[in-house]
Amino acid sequence: MNKTIIIAAVAIAAxxxxxxxxxxxxAWYNHANGGIWFTNDSGAPxxxxxVISLSGKLKTSSDWLGIAGARKxxxxxxxxxxYLSLPVGQTFAGYVVQPGTHCSELTxxxxxxxxxxxxxxxxxxxxxxxxxxxxxxxxxxxxxSVVSRRLSRRDARLRRPSF
Length: 163
Fold this sequence. Notes:
The chain contains two helices and eight strands. By secondary structure, it is α+β, with helices and mostly antiparallel strands. The strands form two sheets. The chain has a five-stranded antiparallel beta sheet with strand order 4-5-3-7-8, with no helix packed on it. The chain has a three-stranded antiparallel beta sheet with strand order 1-2-6, with no helix packed on it. It is elongated, with a radius of gyration of 23 Å.
């Protein structure tokens, strides 16, 4: 049983360093309710962060929430919406996209530092785990359960009194 706990602790600890890949700013979209969330882990406010809808599926400016420290620019609605000086951390912009809009119709663009810096585009706002990652996680859980079961059976055999 102790070996199983050690194996599980090592597996969980190995997952920790993989979170550092999320250091770049990103946005994600909830297909069901039209919500947009921003995460800025860059260490400084973004010069601008824009959500662009190729098909004009963004709602009115009253649906976009104010974010402390950021200015809203809705001059290009319903095709684009921008926050200037998006602060560090996670923020919720509101339920601003018409629900049911496909992820491929949305783009997230941002600039770090200044408005004259390079424009960085992110074309996938829907976050779904990669299928192979899900398969790898399921395989690992099956292997851990088999190892745990074998160890518990072996321990039970060792504890049985022999006459």
